[in-house]
């Protein structure tokens, strides 16, 4: 009975991974296809990568997405970290339910509603105070920061809730000020969570299509918008080449972040062992 269950679980695991990763592998393979048809293999070629890097519109859209992603993730980290700290360390306070609901709202709100509401907000602000002067990269960055900060707050809150506070309490007993405790003790301990929140925000910003379509303007086309407009006319191996580069870049970022988190955990374990000794 146990052997049958193990076989079933192994089969389910293999099927699940195949369902997730075989399509990605096929996209990467067909990015080297010589022909224009993405479903018929006609020979090996790298011409679509050359064509991709010669496509100025695609390159400009990629740079826009990278700039917006970095700025949005950084701003979301700056806003979401204090929010997560308040939710995990300040206990019950007046307005906590409202504050918690405002943090959770962007997580469950349909993107169409979020995009439309932000569009109306930007239009109203432009009419009343003259800012923002049209829609562009700045409005997309603000829009992405709005919902990315909620994800960062949840990640930071989860890390702080499960963290041992004995070191912080010892520092307080020794007379350390709250600001020094946060920057010297708390911040290094939640660094893996901050890195995870930044990467999550960057990925969400890079992947967003719906909200960016509402708040974008001339000259601020993002990569998902460019790819979506291209796919409507038919899938090209050039899109496969772009997807392959994105997959490789994301894989490299995940590997680097995993190594950084692992090193941080090892350093913390060594420090704990030294203190015990």
UniProtKB/TrEMBL annotation:
Subcellular localization(s) per the UniProt record: Cell membrane
Coiled coil: none
Record membrane topology: Multi-pass membrane protein
The keyword DNA repair is annotated on this UniProt entry: no
TM region positions: 7-32, 66-86, 98-125, 137-156, 181-200, 239-262
Domain of life: Bacteria
Sequence similarity: Belongs to the binding-protein-dependent transport system permease family. CysTW subfamily.
Protein name: Putrescine ABC transporter permease PotI
């Amino acid at each position: 009975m146990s052997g049958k269950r193990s076989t079933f679980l192994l089969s389910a695991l293999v099927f699940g991974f195949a369902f997730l990763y075989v399509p990605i592998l096929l996209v990467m393979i067909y990015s080297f296809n010589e022909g224009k048809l993405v479903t018929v293999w006609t020979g090996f070629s790298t011409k679509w990568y050359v064509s991709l890097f010669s496509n100025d519109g695609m390159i400009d859209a990629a740079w826009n997405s990278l700039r917006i992603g970095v700025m949005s993730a950084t701003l979301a980290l700056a806003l979401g970290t204090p929010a997560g700290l308040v939710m995990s360390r300040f206990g019950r306070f007046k307005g906590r339910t409202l504050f918690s609901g405002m943090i959770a709202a962007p997580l469950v709100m349909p993107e169409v509603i979020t995009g439309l509401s932000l569009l109306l907000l930007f239009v109203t602000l432009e009419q009343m105070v003259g800012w923002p002067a049209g829609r562009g990269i700045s409005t997309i960055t603000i829009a992405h920061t709005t919902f990315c900060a909620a994800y960062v707050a949840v990640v930071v809150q989860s890390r702080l809730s499960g963290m041992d506070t004995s070191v912080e309490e010892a520092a307080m007993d020794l007379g350390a000020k709250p600001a020094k405790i946060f920057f010297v003790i708390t911040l290094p301990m939640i660094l893996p969570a901050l890195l995870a929140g930044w990467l999550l925000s960057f990925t969400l910003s890079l992947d967003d299509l719906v909200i960016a379509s509402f708040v974008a303007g001339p000259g601020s086309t993002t990569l998902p918008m460019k790819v979506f407009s291209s796919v409507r006319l038919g899938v090209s191996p050039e899109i496969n080449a772009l997807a392959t580069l994105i997959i490789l870049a994301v894989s490299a970022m995940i590997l680097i972040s995993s190594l950084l988190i692992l090193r941080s955990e090892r350093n913390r374990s060594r420090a704990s062992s030294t203190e015990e000794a």
